[in-house]
Write a structure and sequence with these properties.
By secondary structure, the protein is α+β, with helices and mostly antiparallel strands. The chain has 4 helices and 12 strands, in the order H-H-E-E-H-E-E-E-E-E-E-H-E-E-E-E.
Length: 224
């Protein structure tokens, strides 16, 4: 004969006692509350019964608690974290989609251009709508990626961002050396053409791209 642990709360681990305390007067619970109460209790390795009167009884330790339950919960929260991480990337590095009106994370590294269907491969992620887009513009659910693929995408993109930032810094360093030597590289404020000029030269800058004389203030430095 099993002991009803509801009668021996002091023998329960603190985490179980805490859940029971949360529900306080267990004799006045609604069915929906009771179901949730049971789920929480089972998650920590115990179970109880209840009848038509909705009064829980016969609290016992589960003999075979589901070891997958905790694992599944962790895996789910890990996936949610992955989506959050992709949203963060998207805030800073969003680009226009090739296939629809909206911004996406572009997948340019062929290591993560995962094969999707036929000869098509992953080329954009629309994280707002949790969709994958292949190179022909077909859409798929984000869920078709395995956890491993999803985390590989994040790792790869973050590593590439870091490499790109390092490269930009090295470009800036060279740029300052050029400026210190008396030359500047700017872009035409009208057509975007790259223009080289000597810093000591007064007056306007001529752009051969659009055949205009531009004010210096209208031609921003290539690196700032
Ligand atoms: Zn121009």
């Amino acid at each position: 004969m099993d002991i009803d642990l509801f009668e021996h709360l002091d023998q329960l681990p603190p985490e179980v006692q805490k859940i029971i305390e949360d529900y306080g007067e267990t004799e006045s619970l609604e069915y929906s509350e009771l179901e949730f109460f049971l789920k929480r209790i089972e998650a920590v390795g115990y179970t109880f019964e209840y009848g038509l009167d909705a009064i829980p009884f016969n609290l016992t330790k589960l003999i075979n608690p589901n070891p997958m339950q905790k694992f599944t919960t962790q895996a789910q929260s890990l996936r949610e974290k992955a989506v959050t991480e992709l949203r963060k990337i998207n805030e800073t590095y969003r680009e226009k989609s090739d296939h629809f009106e909206g911004s996406v994370i572009r997948i340019t590294d062929n290591k993560i251009q995962y094969h999707l269907e036929g000869e098509r491969y992953l080329s954009e992620i629309d994280i707002q709508n949790k969709k994958l887009i292949d190179n022909n513009g077909y859409q798929y659910d984000l869920d078709i990626l395995s956890d491993h693929q999803l985390f590989t995408i994040i790792d790869t993109i973050e590593a590439n961002i870091e490499k790109y930032q390092e490269w930009q810094e090295s470009q800036s360093e060279i740029f300052y050396k050029i400026q210190n030597a008396g030359f500047n590289i700017v872009t035409c404020g009208n057509c975007g053409e790259v223009i080289l000029h000597e810093i000591h030269e007064e007056g306007e800058i001529h752009c051969g791209g659009c055949s205009r004389d531009m004010d210096k203030s209208d031609c921003p430095d290539l690196y700032s």
